């Protein structure tokens, strides 16, 4: 099996994080905008494309903030993710336009909306990866860079 690269966007406005909202049998949950890197595409190009596809927003990618290694067999979704090994590169992105679901060209499977989650209350939401919530609060609310490599977290 191959390791898959994924580029994710961290877009903050007024201490709110832009995410996609999805729904499953357990209810609503939230993820960073982003997805798989295509052959011949830089990570910055991948995150720009994914932002247009999933949120209808144009962005200017900046610094790499976090790296997450997701090895599915070690996490709660192992029943259907055990074959997945993915490296996720999370970039600070400056919003050049407002998000608009109607402009989104390719919604993620199960995606129902694009929403702004308050960073101060992010623990109240079913946000994945769950352990990223503390790192986001630390960096953006406490102005402490913290660690970049987060390891295999869920």
Automatic annotation (TrEMBL):
<dbReference type="InterPro" id="IPR000086">
    <property type="entry name" value="NUDIX_hydrolase_dom"/>
</dbReference>
<feature type="domain" description="Nudix hydrolase">
    <location>
        <begin position="1"/>
        <end position="140"/>
    </location>
</feature>
<protein>
    <submittedName>
        <fullName>NUDIX domain-containing protein</fullName>
    </submittedName>
</protein>
<keyword id="KW-0378">Hydrolase</keyword>
<dbReference type="InterPro" id="IPR015797">
    <property type="entry name" value="NUDIX_hydrolase-like_dom_sf"/>
</dbReference>
<dbReference type="Pfam" id="PF00293">
    <property type="entry name" value="NUDIX"/>
</dbReference>
